[in-house]
């Protein structure tokens, strides 16, 4: 019995030590592109990115713009965790810069928008990001990946005049599919939250609140009338493909709906299948142009 208790004691010590080592290691990880990588990405274009901060009454939101301001604006909203440069491949594409003006944000709680200081409300996140479009004096096609999906949906509901269309990429939008994992609860409390680096703390906090936020948004989907594209992989291990089915059922008032479901595709569409995003951007752009010509 003594040997068993001793073994359990040492197992606990080793497990705790392992958690601490992982936590310390994560604090030194940087998932954002370096300045050198950013310069290299734009070296083949005739544009340089502009780094900007929009200050509201309660917090600063960092964002990046690139391209000709007379082109169709596109606003990128990353997932959880993530940063503005998750869409760097698209933003630095010289062919796309002939047709689009790109804006990409660090969402509240990530990157240079208050790292480790999360915002749990979808409505507040949508409002903070919408202020950028007001500052830029442009409506845009809203593109949201993963957690960014429900953020751009909320923007489309609350700010229709700033929304030219919506692209939901592997979006976590169905409240019934949001399941809280047991390990998310302990690190929510101050006694253990220090274990997580800032970006993971922000991720944990907003995901814990997401189910309720999606339930609050559920009655409002019918207010979306702009064209919408939904991109979803059948091999997505993070966001079940049922989210796309939910979006399709909820988007009853849109002017045009495009469903792009690829069975073998995973969650990381902006990196693995950016051409699908490009395809849907042009669909929405051309649809809006055709609509304006017939009015």
Write a structural description.
This protein is of the alpha/beta class and 295 residues long. Helix content is 41%, strand content 17%. An eight-stranded mixed β-sheet has the order 1-2-4-3-5-6-7-8, with helices on both faces. Helix 4 crosses helix 5. It is globular and about 45 Å long. It starts with a helix and ends with a helix. The model is unreliable at 1-30 and 182-189 (pLDDT under 50).
> What gross morphology would you assign?
globular
Q: Quickly give the structural class.
A: alpha/beta
Cα end-to-end separation: 83 Å
Report strand %. Answer: 15-25%
Mean pLDDT equals 86
Side-by-side strand order of the widest sheet: 1-2-4-3-5-6-7-8
Number of strands: 8
Radius of gyration: 20 Å
User: What is the number of helical segments per DSSP (H or I, 4+ residues)?
Assistant: 10
How much helix is in the residues?
A: 40-55%
**Main sheet, how many strands, which sense, barrel?**
8 strands, mixed
């Amino acid at each position: 019995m003594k040997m068993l208790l001793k073994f359990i004691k040492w197992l606990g010590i080793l497990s705790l030590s392992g958690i601490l080592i992982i936590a310390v290691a994560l604090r030194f990880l940087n998932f954002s592109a370096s300045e050198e990588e950013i310069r290299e990405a734009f070296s083949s274009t005739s544009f340089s990115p502009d780094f900007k901060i929009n200050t509201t009454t309660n917090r600063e939101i960092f964002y990046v713009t690139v391209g000709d301001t007379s082109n169709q604006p596109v606003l990128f909203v990353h997932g959880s965790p993530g940063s503005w440069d998750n869409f760097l491949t698209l933003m630095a594409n010289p062919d796309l810069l002939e047709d689009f003006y790109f804006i990409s944000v660090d969402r509240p709680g990530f990157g240079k928008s208050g790292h480790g200081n999360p915002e749990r409300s979808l409505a507040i996140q949508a409002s903070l990001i919408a202020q950028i479009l007001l500052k830029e004096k442009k409506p845009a096609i809203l593109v949201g990946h993963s957690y960014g999906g429900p953020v751009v949906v909320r923007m489309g509901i609350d700010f229709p005049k700033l929304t030219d269309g919506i692209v939901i990429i592997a979006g976590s939008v169905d409240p019934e599919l949001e399941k809280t994992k047991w390990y998310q609860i302990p690190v929510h409390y101050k006694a253990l939250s220090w274990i997580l680096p800032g970006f993971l703390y922000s991720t944990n906090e907003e995901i814990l609140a997401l189910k309720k936020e999606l339930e609050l948004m559920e009655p409002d989907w019918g207010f979306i009338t702009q064209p919408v594209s939904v991109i979803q992989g059948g091999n997505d291990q993070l966001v079940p493909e049922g989210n796309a089915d939910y979006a399709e059922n909820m988007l009853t008032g849109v002017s045009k709906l495009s469903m792009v479901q690829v069975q073998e595709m995973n969650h990381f569409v902006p990196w693995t299948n950016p051409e699908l995003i490009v395809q849907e951007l042009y669909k929405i752009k051309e649809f809006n142009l055709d609509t304006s010509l017939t009015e």
